[in-house]
Write a structure and sequence with these properties.
Blueprint (H helix, E strand, L loop, with lengths): L6 H10 L1 E4 L5 H17 L13 H5 L2 H5 L4 E5 L18 E6 L1 H4 L1 H7 L2 H9 L5 E9 L9 E4 L1 H4 L8 E6 L10 E3 L10 E5 L7 E5 L13 E3 L6 E5 L4 E3 L10 E8 L19 E2 L7
Antiparallel strand pairs: 1-11, 2-3, 3-4, 4-13, 4-14, 5-12, 6-11, 6-13, 7-10, 7-12, 8-9
Bound molecules: fe (ii) ion.
The site of fe (ii) ion has 3 residues, from loops.
């Protein structure tokens, strides 16, 4: 398979735990994803309780919709989306924090974007020629209310043995200091994984964090560097790299799409929160039947 990344980008990924790749997504592809995301929100009918996504641990722990969203397309509200009476303060499509977590397999537009020779080539370039697409998120970072995402390591939430999860993060709009760009701790992917997020049973049984290493994660934002990137940029993230993004109080949204991949050769434990049913196996980036 032909090399997609430059030698410098591959070196940066291994040295820093992340690599910034400009001009990876053209304007037409970005427009298609952004329009589709709004359509998915408009079509989505919440059942039962509204599902809010925050990185506050308790709110995420035992939400049935969250725990089953590894094999579905679900919309999670911003925590500041509602007023004191529980009514939305703004239209629905401006109230959603993210869409997750299987649109890369269930939606044709997102599937077409996610399973490409280019992305399979990127994965091979960084040493994962057998990459499986595990999870996807469409992140809105809404104007005014886009929530902070606390400093974390992705391997906490998507664990494999050995650790292989790698994030492919695509800026669909400019990501700046004002609208809540990513921040990361260069080189800190060589430090240990601090904790894992485990499900306690089926979708109703909840979850818990298990501490593996009590040393603190880098302090945000003091110990991190901002990754301000123009629309169309891909940021590759090692699963052990501590990263963070701030609240968005600006008037501009910061839409991004992320795809998280793991190596087919790694063990995927049954206690990971994200479990897929037997009739929905994970697919290799390089071997997928493409539309
Ligand atoms: Fe993350």
């Amino acid at each position: 398979m032909a090399q997609v990344l430059s030698d410098e980008q591959i070196e940066a990924f291994h040295r820093d735990g992340f690599a910034v790749v400009h001009d990876m997504v053209g304007p037409e592809s970005r427009r298609r994803l952004m329009e589709r995301a709004v359509e998915l929100v408009e079509q989505w009918q919440p059942t039962g309780e509204q599902t809010v996504f925050t990185t506050e641990e308790q709110e995420r722990t035992s939400n049935r919709e969250f725990l089953s969203s590894g094999s579905s397309i679900w919309c999670f509200f911003e925590s500041e989306a509602f007023d004191e009476r529980g009514e939305l303060r703004q239209p629905k499509h401006l109230s959603i924090n993210k869409i997750g977590h299987a649109q890369h397999d269930l939606d044709p537009i997102f599937s077409q974007f996610s399973y490409t020779d280019d992305l399979a080539g990127v994965a091979a370039d960084i040493g994962m020629a057998d990459a499986l697409a595990l999870q996807s998120m469409y992140i809105f970072k809404q104007p005014g209310i886009g929530g902070e995402v606390g400093c974390h390591q992705d391997s906490t939430f998507l664990y494999t043995d050995p650790l292989t999860v790698t994030g492919f993060w695509f800026a669909l709009e400019d990501a700046t200091l004002d609208n809540g760009c990513l921040w990361a701790a260069p080189g800190a992917h060589r430090d240990p994984l601090r904790k894992v997020f485990r499900r306690l049973g089926d979708d109703d049984a909840g979850t818990e964090f298990e501490v593996l290493d009590p040393s603190p994660l880098p302090e945000a934002p003091a110990d991190l560097v901002p990754l301000e990137v123009p629309a169309g940029t891909m940021v590759l993230l090692d699963g052990r790299l501590p990263h963070w993004s701030d609240v968005n109080r600006s008037e501009k949204s910061r839409h991004a799409y992320t795809l998280h991949c793991i190596s087919e050769s790694a063990e995927y434990p049954s206690w990971n929160w994200l479990q897929r049913p037997a009739d929905m196996p994970l697919r290799r980036l390089d071997r997928c039947d493409r539309a």
